Amino acid sequence: MNRYDKGYISLYRKFKNWRFYKNDSIKAVFIHCLLSAYWKDEVITEYRGKKLDPPITVPRGSFVTSYRKLAEELGKSVGQIQRNLDILSGKNKRYTDSIHNSIHELEIKSIQSYTIIKVCKYEAFQVFEQQERYTEINKNDTQNDTDNRYQLNNININKDKKIERYKDISTDVHSNFNSLTLKLLKNGFINDDDIPELYDNMFNEFLEEYEMEHINVVVDYIIRKMSNRNINNKFYYFKKSLTINLKKMKKMIDQESPSEESQPPIKINNEELHDLLDQLREGKL
Asked: Burial, 151: exposed, middle or buried (Cβ in 10 Å; 0-12, 13-18, 19+)?
């Protein structure tokens, strides 16, 4: 094992809807490229025993190889590798149409004795790595809520590198989502490119601890606060805000609850909850 074989990729089940999923040869080449791509920028000074002068910098999501090397690694002929790479890079027009004419999975640049292959949407297969960054921030964060929001909003994730999904072509793709996720989809806060499954799983986790009515109120509050803000990593910011505000709201309700069982419970309507959350954020409570 070499040092490039460490780590992992994320492969969604939606990958089964990929246009080449039923083609085992193309699928094998594409997955091999995913697994071979460097997970960080690399400076390459030699290739297969030959010194490269000058050295080359290969960015994250790309790797240095050759058609012959790929053929050896995959047990295929050089001709098979070339045909598959031509298809995946969009060079073979036979496999493009009005739907897929702007789609290609790989970019290929051949230079003398080696080839650089770039996985076009490499970040889409690194979602677990992004979740680890979020978890690490939560673990080590000792600053106040303002600094928390600043850190989350400035994780080095380019807003143009949204997680790419292989979309379900069925008409009832959203039928299994809970009402909170459907609410975000309906009001345009998220769309299919934002991977609503992530939000759905998140809401299901919160519903194990909090009441639906409380979550619904805080969701409305967060959407209102985020409506005019440019946030790169929307999902992680949204989850962090939901966690913080649900805890604050629960604490407020607990403090307002009667100490004696004989007293009726205090009811707080949505408007009052919004006001309390605003006062907390402004430091008035």
From this structure: middle
